[in-house]
Amino acid sequence: MLSGKNILVAITGGIAAYKICELIRMYKRANANVRVIVTPNALNFVTKLTLQNLSQNEVGVEEFTLDEYRPEHISYADEADIMVVAPATANSISKFANGICDNLLTSIFCAFKKHVIIAPAMNCNMWANPIIQQNISKLSGLGYEILAPESGYLACGDVGVGRLCSLDKIFEATAKNLCMEKILSGKKIVITAGGTIEDIDPVRYISNYSSGKMGIALADVGYELGAEVTLVSTVATKQKPYKVISVKSALEMQKTVENEFLTSDCTIMAAAVADYRVKNKSEHKMKKTDENEISITLIKNPDILKSLCEKKKNQIVVGFCAESENLFENAKQKIKNKGCDYLIANDISRSDIGFSSDYNEVTILKKDGTIKKLERAEKSVIARMIFEEIYGQV
User: Which residues make beta-bridge pairs with 343?
Assistant: First the structure.
């Protein structure tokens, strides 16, 4: 299943290094070409001769051993389709996260531009250390795939989380990435997320309950499928491997989206844009008075979705609607009024889906009148199914 694929296996200096011999055999049985690089400390746990015999390739250890005119770290990085770091020690993870290149393996990691899988393994107290967790979060946010360690009996005698995940899990993650077709390669997709915030004064505002999770899931999956993704978001996100533009109000979102829309192939308006904003926002905090009532005048915000539909040429425009009643009737009317190519209808009356939930259940309406319901699933799964409807099988 991996015939013709070039896998770079990177082994750092942890006791779990001996397990990687079997992982190499699994890759070879799947007809992959495997090259191995190790840190000098890894050779305390597994020999270079063993790794060479299993991989049927020379094993890289030293930084400046040159077999040809190119530096080795560039040569290894150029030739491989994927890099798998297993086991990844706390030391190497910290070097990765901070761009330290003090050996062949860390230099190759820094030069590697394709997908990287990192499978940590270490003492449970080291894994729980907040610095290590911060470095793991940083790497994950930058797009590196982390296969978290499992709980179990550790070589040091402790019992806890830190054990290398199963080799089957590492193999499956490798195969999934190498065999996954990047169907959105070459596409620029703009996605909005979160609820807009309309200021009343410097400390108060009008907004909604949107968490932005659906929009972020769409951005993550779109990037995974090869698209150039721009996420326009009102909610804070951890570091992402794609472009993120932070906005606050509907007017800010409109300006940003319209600018990105000009060069986009598809724009997905998953954000919950406020219908109204305060007409006269106070520059200072409004003080409480003796009056029992207060009036605030609201004016209508621009209809970003409709505006994009009126301007579009070859772009695909996808809208979202959140309804608490008469879902289908309201959605049908909205897609007709807006003129978008697709409309994703959400039922916000249910507590097990939508807004802050990690799950969703939606109905996709197309401009040709066809309707498809997507049953309750994680938002990442729903996101993939939405792209499938737009671009075909993924």
Answer: 319, 365
User: Tens digits of per-residue pLDDT, 335-394?
Assistant: 999 999 999 998 877 877 877 888 889 999 999 989 998 888 888 888 988 998 998 754
Nearest Cα residue to 252 out of 204, 288, 289, 302 = 302
Q: Where are the beta strands (DSSP E) in the chain?
A: 6-11, 33-38, 59-60, 82-88, 115-120, 145-146, 150-153, 159-163, 188-193, 198-201, 204-206, 228-233, 243-246, 266-269, 276-278, 298-300, 316-323, 342-347, 359-366, 371-378
Helix (H) or strand (E) holding 390: helix 379-391
Quote the radius of gyration of the chain (alpha carbons, Å). 25
Alpha-carbon span 37 to 246, nearest angstrom: 40
Pairing mode, strands 115-120 and 82-88? parallel
pTM of the prediction? 0.66
What secondary structure letter does DSSP report for 380? H
CA distances from 283 to 198, 199, 202, 212, 393 (A): 13, 10, 7, 28, 51
pLDDT tens per residue, range 19-64: 999 999 999 999 999 999 999 999 999 999 999 999 999 999 986 6
- Determine how many CB atoms are found less than 10 A away from the CB of residue 271: 28
Helix (H, G, I), strand (E, B) or coil at 315: coil
Q: For the chain, how many helices (H) and strands (E)? A: 13, 20
**Nearest partner of 388 among 380, 12, 69, judged by Cα:** 380
Residue 168 CA: distances (Å) to CA of 23, 26, 144, 181: 8, 9, 19, 21
Tell me, what amino acid is at 167?
Answer: L
Residues 6+ apart with CB under 8 A from 143: 223, 240, 241
- What is the rounded average pLDDT of the residues 64-86? 72
Q: Which of 110, 124, 156, 321 is catalytic?
A: 156
Domains and CATH numbers, the chain: 6-179 (3.40.50.1950), 188-391 (3.40.50.10300)
Q: Please state, in angstroms and rounded to a whole number, the distance separating the CA atoms of residues 245 and 138.
A: 18
Residue among 164, 89, 85 at smallest CA distance from 126: 89
**3-class DSSP state of 215:** helix
Tokens of 387: 């792209």
Tell me whether residue 156 is one of the annotated catalytic residues.
Answer: yes
Q: What is the pLDDT of residues 109-132, one digit of tens each?
A: 998 988 899 999 999 999 999 999
Q: Which of 116, 121, 112, 117 is nearest to 90 (CA)?
A: 121
